[in-house]
Amino acid sequence: MGNITLSNVSKAFGTTVIIPNIDLAIEDGEFVVFVGPSGCGKSTLLRLIAGLEDVSGGTISIDGRDVTNEAPARRKLAMVFQSYALYPHMTVAKNIAFPLKMAGESKEVIDKKVADAARVLNLSNYLERRPGQLSGGQRQRVAIGRAIVRQPTAFLFDEPLSNLDAALRGTMRLEISELHQQLKTTMIYVTHDQIEAMTMADKIVVLNAGNIEQVGSPMELYLKPANLFVAGFIGSPTMNLIKGEPAAKLGAATVGIRPEHLKLSTSEGEWKAKVNVAEHLGSDTILHVQSEIAGAMTVRADGGADIHHGNTVYLTPDPSRLHRFDKDGKAL
Amino acid sequence: MARAVSTRTKIGWTIAAWIVALLIFFPILYTIITSFKTEPEAISGFSLIPSGTLESYWEVQSRYNYFQPFMNSVIISVGSTVLALLVGIPAAWSMAFSPGRFTKDILMWMLSTKMMPAVAVLVPIYLLFRDWGLLDSRIGLTVMLMLINLPIVVWMLYTYFREIPGEILEAARMDGATLWGEIVYVLTPMAVPGIASTLLLNIILAWNESFWTIRLTTVNAAPLTAFITSFSSPQGLFWAKLSAASTLAIAPILIMGWFSQRQLVRGLTFGAVK
Predict the structure, then answer these.
(1) Which stretches are transmembrane (chain A) (predicted)?
(2) Which residues in chain A have their CB less than 8 angstroms from residue B172's CB?
């Protein structure tokens, strides 16, 4: 089991409040992603759950048991760090075996579990190497191996892919998702990369300045952002947010329209705009345009669109895809 | 990009470095040379060529038993170093990984004790040793040298421990290591190079310490420093014998230093060059 419940959790370092007050329930087997800009408190929240930091107020319980004041090891959680935090003086086998050794397992059990984990993670040929002799992706696998051998109630990942190059990040993202399918254990994953959040999560928790802005499935956040912050954070390229007259016409302080929900035409449409930059990605064309009425906007057009810098285009928002926000930024 | 250095400049610097090194080493070299001279030769004036006699060494050995002060030096320097590490490792660990408000002040205060001339506390320490029956005892001297070198040991270890990323210790904590497990299985093995150079430096410092070792011992616990002093006797100075005794006293530490020089240099420049 791996139900994790946070009630009224707060954290302050001296007089600096990082997390004012958070309530959150994580269900067994869920893949939960904490996402937000740097400094939003997402890593601190993860460290509070891990027990590496003490809460300033509130309680944390795992499967109904209050663990607020328990040491990290007793919470039965495993963590994968951003820097991998492998033990440089130990071989891969010893790194993976370390938590089992600390738990006092017998040598036979340790050897078997290490061999199993190594097989799952394709590390069997590297067991006698030291972390310094491995590539970034292999190190990350060792860190994951060290986490899975303990069969923890939940896995905590603290920006585990941010030190890898783009191609490897994509592969590792898949591997972690597959691992979650295999193990069906609760996973909490911290990232500032909304693509990682969208692709991996069952549930995304969007954090901003220590507060939860919205909790929901990736598609819920994409389709129904609760406020301007979530609207601007989730989705790539980001949502166009338009203020002033066009918004007032729709009875809102701000209206949002995603780049993929604007109909593009070279002859007619609601908003006339001039193309500043056209990024031809092959699959899509991303246009950065300047409209007299709606201001600077981004448009996702067809990959074959023959539009270049300086062209004039007309944009028409899909009315069913418009997001309306009041003056406080809340969705209407 | 490496800066271009002309061959002439290189030669110039090499010669300068050799001159400085020879100047520093010269007193030791001259002591060794003198130890191979006869007494009349030794006082007759400056000469770099000895007659090569081993007379002084025989006399030193026959008049005094070299082995006892040598063993005392070994026991005192190794013992005080081991004790200092046992105290210093946990102290430096706590200061490096869970610093409090006053950690920096404590470190400065510890170092400040090294700024005080030792003679300032000679009388109280001597009286304490007398009252506790520690005069001329190896235990007393071991503890004394441990205390004297402790600030340096803690400072050096603190610097090494600071280089170890905190996340690795947190990983150990998540993996179920107790505080003891964390120190034994993770921190200490990672800090071995640092601990080794601290150990080597401390042995050298303790081996050469002469203020307290001479004043707090007479016969039984007298180490090699006291052995040398006994040759500058009231009957007159015997340069050749004094030099032979000095050579015998520094030989072991010189040999140890020679074999561990890489470790020592790495240790002493650690943190300064990355």
Answers:
(1) none
(2) 87, 98
